């Protein structure tokens, strides 16, 4: 019987073992970018599909909203044919998709203008209001949340939690009316409803649509002060409600970070408490907090309907509300798509900021 050669049974040398090749860093980044773009595309297509079918199931006939209830049958049939509503649903969705991607949201029944033109006119007012509101909300909410977490269970913590609870509980329209009554009607500290007084409205040439920026660029400081006096009250109101949410989330994130082992180690090394809180704990808490602030900003851009109604603020929320009350579905759906696009864009921005704040989230 032949004895097997032990060398023949020995494993192959390590150099001869072929290891699976790993894709290069460049290929991995491209793959991650491709997956991310596919997710964004599918999300946007889902948004368009939802808005399309909402426009079809709502018991409002866009043809009758355009031609009127007393229009002759042949006029209604012709308008329905011109709008493509006599075609199959899948064909209507294709036409809708093609128009939306080209920036055509149709014509507003209420204003007789292209919907995109109305949105371009109304959106800067909402953007100005929401931007100042989020600066107020995040600028106060983050420090208050940090302070409440550091002083957990003490008087400061209780006061911050009460402020947040009031912000969640009090209806915003009631608080807006009370603020107008006290600070505008009684004390006269701020401007009233609207963006600017009539005396300045027709003398100012709009450039960006942001009144504070336009008046500053034109050197019209008296008009700048007037616009700021109208803006400060609704922006502070929105900022208060966003501050209630941001301070609560900041407190929660900071409590989690302050309980981590690296904080105990930093204290054992003798680092100052201020450095541990602001340079280490808050820096780690800012990673999830970025999403909170971004979504709060998106909520102010689309959720300020009641505030704009109370203060007669000519923004996107008031435009969508008036369009919905007048069965102007082109304007309603166009505004909804813009709001959804804002949410998608801010989510994209928060994901990009993740990679700057936390290197562990970068593709390796």
Structure characteristics:
BPD_transp_1_N; MetI-like; transmembrane helix; MetI-like fold; mainly alpha; 2 domains; dipeptide transmembrane transporter activity; cell membrane; 364 residues; single chain; 0% strand
Describe it.
This is Binding-protein-dependent transport systems inner membrane component. Its main location: membrane. It contains 16 helices and no strands. It is mainly alpha-helical. The protein is globular and about 85 Å long. The chain has two domains: 36-98, no CATH class; 123-315, MetI-like fold (Orthogonal Bundle). α6 (115-150) packs across α11 (221-258), α7 (155-169) packs across α11 (221-258) and α10 crosses α11. 73% of the residues lie in helices and 0% in strands.
In short:
Keywords: Cell membrane, Membrane, Transmembrane, Transmembrane helix, Transport. With 364 residues, the protein is mainly alpha-helical.
Q: Superfamily at the CATH H level of the largest domain? A: MetI-like
Number of domains: 2
Sheet bearing the most strands, described?
A: none
The level-1 CATH class of the largest domain? Mainly Alpha
Mean pLDDT, as a whole number? 80
Gross morphology is globular
CATH fold group of the largest domain = MetI-like fold
State the secondary-structure class. Answer: mainly alpha
Helix content: over 70%
Q: Quaternary state, please?
A: single chain
Approximate strand percentage: under 5%
- Which segments are poorly predicted (pLDDT under 50) over 5 or more consecutive residues? none
Tell me what the CATH architecture of the largest domain is.
Orthogonal Bundle
Distance between the termini: 56 Å
The helix/strand order is: HHHHHHHHHHHHHHHH
Radius of gyration: 28 Å
Number of strands: 0
| Number of helical regions | 16
Keywords: Cell membrane, Membrane, Transmembrane, Transmembrane helix, Transport
InterPro entries: BPD_transp_1_N, MetI-like, MetI-like_sf
Membrane topology: Multi-pass membrane protein
Protein name: Binding-protein-dependent transport systems inner membrane component
């Amino acid at each position: 019987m032949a004895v097997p050669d032990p060398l023949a049974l020995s494993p192959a040398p390590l150099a001869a073992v072929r290891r699976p090749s790993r894709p290069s860093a460049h290929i991995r980044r491209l793959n991650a970018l491709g997956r991310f773009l596919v997710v964004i595309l599918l999300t946007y297509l889902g948004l368009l599909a939802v808005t399309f079918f909402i426009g079809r199931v709502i018991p409002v006939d866009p043809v009758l909203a355009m031609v009127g209830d007393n229009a002759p049958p042949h006029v209604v049939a012709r308008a329905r044919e011109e709008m493509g509503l006599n075609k199959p649903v899948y064909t209507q969705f294709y036409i809708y998709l093609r128009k939306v991607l080209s920036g055509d949201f149709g014509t507003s029944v209420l204003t007789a203008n292209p919907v995109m033109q109305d949105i371009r006119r109304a959106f800067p007012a909402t953007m100005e209001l929401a931007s100042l509101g989020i600066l107020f909300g995040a600028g106060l909410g983050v420090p208050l949340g940090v302070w409440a977490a550091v002083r957990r269970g003490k008087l400061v913590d209780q006061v911050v939690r009460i402020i947040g609870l009031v912000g969640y509980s009090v209806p915003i329209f009631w608080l807006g009316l009370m603020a107008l009554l006290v600070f505008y009607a009684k004390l006269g500290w701020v401007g009233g409803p609207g963006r600017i007084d009539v005396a300045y409205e027709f003398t100012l040439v709009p450039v960006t649509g942001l009144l504070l920026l336009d008046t500053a660029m034109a050197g019209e400081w008296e008009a700048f002060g007037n616009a700021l006096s109208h803006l400060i009250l609704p922006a502070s109101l929105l900022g208060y409600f966003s501050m209630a949410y941001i301070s609560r989330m900041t407190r929660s994130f900071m409590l989690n970070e302050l309980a981590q082992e690296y904080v105990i180690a930093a204290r054992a090394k003798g680092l100052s408490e201020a450095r541990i809180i602001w340079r280490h704990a808050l820096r780690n808490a800012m990673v999830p907090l970025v999403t909170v602030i971004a979504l709060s900003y998106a909520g102010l851009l689309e959720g300020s309907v009641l505030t704009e109604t109370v203060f007669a603020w000519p923004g996107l929320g008031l435009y969508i509300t008036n369009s919905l009350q007048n069965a102007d579905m082109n304007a309603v759906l166009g505004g909804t798509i813009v709001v959804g696009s804002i949410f998608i864009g801010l989510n994209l921005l928060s994901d990009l900021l993740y990679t700057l704040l936390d290197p562990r989230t970068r593709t390796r």
